[in-house]
Amino acid sequence: MSVVDVFYAPRGFAFDDFDTHDVSLPGGDTVTLRFPRLDAGMVHTLADSVRQHRDAALARYSTDRIVDVIARAAELWTDPQYPERRLAERLIPAITGYDASMVRLELKRYMRMFRRRELLRFVDDELDCPQMLDEYRPNRSGGYTRLYGPELSFHVFSSNVPGIPVWSMTMSLLVKSAVLGKSSFDEPLMPVLFARSLRSVDPDMADALAIMPWHGGTTDLEDAAIGEADAVIAYGSSHTTEAIRPRVRAGKPFLSYGAKIGFSLIGRESLRTDLYTDTVHRMAVDVATYDQQSCLAPQTMFVERGGAVPPAQVAELLACELSSQQRKYPCSTPSEEESMAIQRLRSTAQMKALLLGAGSMAGAAAAASDDPFVIQSRSGTDWTVLYYPSVGMADSLSTPLNRTVNIVAVDHIEDALPSLRPYAQWLQTCGVALGPNRLFDVAQRVGSAGIDRICPLGEMNRAKSGWHHDGGFNLLDLVHVVDIERNTDMYCDGFDMDVE
Fold first, then answer.
1. DSSP for 238-259?
2. Running DSSP on this structure, what letter comes out for residue 117?
3. What is the rounded CA–CA span in Å between residue 252 and residue 254?
4. Measuring CA to CA, how many Å separate 55 from each of 19, 225, 253, 278?
5. Model confidence over 453-475: pLDDT tens digits?
6. Are 18 and 5 in contact (CB under 8 A)?
7. Where are the beta strands (DSSP E) in 267-396?
8. Mind listing the pLDDT tens digit for each residue in 247-274?
9. Contact at 8 Å (CB) between 364 and 316?
10. Strands of 157-257, DSSP E
């Protein structure tokens, strides 16, 4: 049995009391996860420690130096033999239940977002002059501007997708903010491993980080962290994020990233005889990656009639692809509550099909009749495809996730748009398979419906650097701006004793 620490603290910070949690690995081995027992006083002490370390090093670094440190830490993960990467690939599947091959592939892709060229692109996209994070720089109005990030940001990390905490930590570091992170017991490892990577590159900068797991709803610890922080960033379910919101003092930045709904628009041009196979494969990849647990994943896919393959047949082909994905990347085991929700949805859809005359048909017979139908995995709730021949027949655009997807047929892609309006506050990502002559017109319409990200089909779970998460800014929403107004410098020149 080996012991792995799933917490991170500045150098020299010691804990006296620990709890442990055992994780079973394939082959019968066991790993013990170790983490400190915390009280509110320790949270205050941790916050004070990372803040002091931030003042001593991180606050004095140039933005370019911070980018370089993060990029060098991320570069370590390109080596398959890097110990932290090997540990992540070994333990994260055991902790989360995600397929090991999927975790290996997706983590490799994800860490590429933190290469130097990607970070520079991201910073330049959000800030006209990134050097304003370092010093007062001339602005367009004739004065000078400086951007100040929070001294300390408190992060509530989610566990649904490994790696997301790395993005959140990076955003704070780029604005020179110390980080106090609360990780989830459902996946406490990745933020700690990346903090250790940063330490190997620049230990002084990494001392501005503290990552601790504790159970959600431990209000004395959360209130201590919220009170210490100058900004709060929360990921998780809508219940989690909304429970935190009223406890954040008015005027303190609070960035909330709760549950969202993604959907896809598949145009007839992507269902040509030479293209439909790739299109359906991409649909399956979007559904299967991390079992739809990412807020980016699609829950409903609108398929346009008029292609070489009709929407009902697309649903059949998608079911075959999901079956293949299951063999390649097995679905994680859903909770009992999640399984029951999937079974209820299946039963409701099958009853609707019976009432409309489709009976229990699935496959070619149901597809030929263009009635609603359900195709599901042969055992358990590994995957589910629910087909609806019109927008009005789908009870909801959301699903219980875990590779459960609605396929809704439309005569024209634009027919799907009115059904989005009731979900405007939850919409996030739209995957598209459309011809270039329609892309921007459709983008204009879905943008006004509430979507904040449009991407190629097959890449819905792989946001690019520079994406404006939930339609906001990643850096600008964390900083406050100080302006020296035009002519102030000239006025101050008048007090120079050497000038007559």
1. HHHHHHHGGGSPTTS-EEEE--
2. H
3. 6
4. 32, 18, 20, 52
5. 999 999 999 998 778 888 889 99
6. no
7. 298-304, 373-376, 384-388
8. 999 989 999 998 899 999 999 999 999 9
9. yes
10. 178-183, 209-213, 231-235, 254-257
